[in-house]
Amino acid sequence: MTSESKKPSSAVAGIAGPLPTLQEYKKEQVRLREMIEKQKHLFKKLIQLEDTIIQKEATYIESSPTGNIITGYDNYIKGSSGSAAQRRKLGSIEQHCVFSRSSVSYRPNTGSVD
């Protein structure tokens, strides 16, 4: 065999350049595990933050006679006749949620967040 045939091919699996060493592989494996753990941690924080938003928004909607922030300003513009407050009482609180429904993890089919 020639010395040319003993060299590892850099064309394996479309990799341009030298193949990674076992040490580099282990290093990247550790880095990937750390990133996955960080993703899990961030997802848990997102869920906690969304729960806080849902609770605060529900408290606001229940305590406000004019509904959510949008219908509340609508009453100021059009003049409050009390009919908007009646409409709010007829619907569920979830219909008036603006902030909690704007989350990327909100599922409209189930009516809850992931």
UniProtKB/TrEMBL annotation:
Keyword Hydrolase: no
Cellular component, GO, one term: NuA4 histone acetyltransferase complex
Pfam families: NuA4 (PF09340)
Gene Ontology terms: biological process: chromatin organization; DNA repair
InterPro entries named in the record: Eaf6
Keyword vocabulary terms for this entry: Chromatin regulator, Coiled coil, DNA damage, DNA repair, Nucleus, Transcription, Transcription regulation
Top-level taxon of origin: Eukaryota
Keyword ATP-binding: no
Location of the protein in the cell: Nucleus
Membrane-traversing stretches: none
PANTHER family, per the entry: CHROMATIN MODIFICATION-RELATED PROTEIN MEAF6 (PTHR13476)
Family of this protein: Belongs to the EAF6 family.
UniProt function note: Component of the NuA4 histone acetyltransferase complex which is involved in transcriptional activation of selected genes principally by acetylation of nucleosomal histone H4 and H2A. The NuA4 complex is also involved in DNA repair.
Subunit description: Component of the NuA4 histone acetyltransferase complex.
Protein name as catalogued: Chromatin modification-related protein EAF6
Organism the protein comes from: Parascedosporium putredinis
